[in-house]
Amino acid sequence: MAIVEEVERGSSGRRRLSLKNPATMEELGVIEVSTADDVNAAAKAARAAQPAWARVSLKDRAALVQKAVKVIVRRSEEIAAMSMSETGRTAQETLAMEVLAACDALTWAAKRAPRVLRDRRRWMHLLGPMKSLHLLHRPLGVVGVITPWNGPFILSVNPVAQALLAGNAVLLKPSEVTPNTGAMVGSIFEEAGLPPGVLQVLPGDGETGAALVDADVDKISFTGSVRTGRKIGEACGRRLIPCTLELGGKDPAIVCADANLDRAAAGTVFGACMNAGQVCMAVERIYVVEEIYDEFVDKVVEHCSAITPGADADMGPIIWPPQLEVIESHLADALEKGATVLLGGGRVKDIEGLYFEPTVVTGVTHDMALMKEETFGPVVAVMKVSDEEEALRLANDSDYGLSSSVWTGDKRKGLALARQIESGSACVNDSEIVYGVTEAPFGGLKQSGVGSVNSESGLLGYSHLMPVVINRFNNDREQMWYPFDAKGADGMRKAINFLWNTPIGRWMS
Ligand code: NAD
């Protein structure tokens, strides 16, 4: 069963892919895969359009992004319908995850960009009386954005808007599984008045993505799997261009004895099953201290049993068929090694589409793929631990480090435990929230990624901060310049002694 299939080439000679809705298996049409020539032509057009866009004032660039938000709000049902047709997700989840999150992220960035990206002057602690320092934000140039299928609108529109705010031209390559939702990003900015060539969408699969990384671009912003991220990182390394890699996760949750167990169970089940588990920061492993383990597991089963799969229900399908096989293989491996499935464990049989049952598994160990590799499905894997120390050790026994959560009645302890988890971000008594917090930089440690997106630092990641030092006076020469002589060396000795060997000097330095 495939939802993306290669079909015969058309008259243009390009490869073509047919698409299906993973919930209904209804045909969604055919896309043409952009070739390396298409990508290079788009990069040339972007290069030509970028300088004029960079000259548009920051205030006007921000105003254009605010206009795009208005377009998103007006076309929200259309965006949700497109995303739902390609992902099969439910309406509430799609509106929250794709549309609401996008409006919030873009509005926040547009309001802050004029302050975050404005050129500024800084006083220099020693040289200030003689020279002034200007910090100029320069766009990088042309940015390639490559995105996955699990949040096709938000994960495309958000980096695109941040790169545009910083004055770059952008080439967006959305996932071949959800190309039409990605294409809407282009049409929204066009309607908002973005000049031609500044944002171009390149439909296609890995072939197009690889061509984009090799094209005349100045940065790649990638969201997707570790496997592809590694290839992109290598290619960018060879070309010496920067990249941000937002990759997969295997997020741990630690449930302490003093946690509000109702909230912890509801929150971890939501964290594991939202978007049918196809979220990079999904709760994939839960470590529960033994005192409250049985009670917690009962509550988890209760919450999970209440989730109904189905287009008009709570949980959408698995969007990409090979992912179903990954989920099944992780469960089979766990069962073979002694785990117990308390709930679910298989494909939903009575509805059409690629639905998987909300599943609860106990008796898991770190010998199992289910506790070590990204499952990306609605599976709640719960492991009993003797105490928080053991939970921490197991939480950190992972190649991944995207996000994490701690559940406790003591917020200070929660913060202390969060600090010790090897993950790019964490929540205390919450889950699935960090990417949606516009003020929070989001990025992974270990194999979960390189760099971060969102917040002020995300915006700054699309610009080069260029220091320009201006000499205040028109003096003939500096003390440091030629000619060198004994008097000059003596002056250096005196300066070192004064600055770091006297109280007033140390204060000045
Ligand atoms: P993927 O790596 O298979 O594909 C992602 C994108 O890369 C697609 O557009 C694809 O066409 C393109 N691509 C494939 N091969 C390429 C190549 N050689 N060169 C350039 N581009 C190439 O990932 P996916 O299956 O679409 O997405 C799921 C993964 O994304 C999961 O691992 C998930 O955890 C991760 N993800 C991470 C975040 C985050 O912010 N950390 C967010 C969402 C998803």
Give structural notes.
The chain is α/β, with parallel strands linked by helices and 509 residues long. It has 3 domains: 36-247 and 455-464, Aldehyde Dehydrogenase, Chain A, domain 1, CATH 3.40.605.10; 251-440, Aldehyde Dehydrogenase, Chain A, domain 2 (3-Layer(aba) Sandwich), CATH 3.40.309; 481-508, no CATH class. The protein is built from 17 helices and 21 strands. Strands 13-14-15-12-11-17-18 form a 7-stranded mixed β-sheet, with helices on both faces. The mean pLDDT is 97. Helix 2 packs antiparallel against helix 4 and helix 4 (91-116) packs parallel to helix 5 (154-165). Helices cover 43% and strands 19% of the residues. A hairpin with an 8-residue loop joins strand 1 (4-7) and strand 2. It is globular. Bound molecules: nicotinamide-adenine-dinucleotide. The site of nicotinamide-adenine-dinucleotide has 30 residues, from helix 7 and helix 8.
SSE topology:
Blueprint: E1 4-7, E2 16-20, E3 27-32, H1 36-55, H2 58-74, H3 76-87, H4 91-116, E4 120-122, E5 131-139, E6 142-146, H5 154-165, E7 169-173, H6 179-192, E8 199-201, H7 206-214, E9 219-223, H8 226-239, E10 243-246, E11 251-255, H9 261-273, E12 283-289, H10 290-305, H11 321-336, E13 340-343, E14 359-362, H12 369-372, E15 379-385, H13 388-395, E16 400-401, E17 405-407, H14 411-420, E18 427-428, E19 445-446, E20 449-450, H15 455-460, E21 463-471, H16 486-501, H17 503-508
Parallel strand pairs: 6-7, 6-9, 7-8, 9-10, 11-12, 11-17, 12-15, 14-15, 17-18
Antiparallel strand pairs: 1-2, 2-3, 4-5, 5-21, 10-20, 13-14, 16-19
Bound molecules: nicotinamide-adenine-dinucleotide.
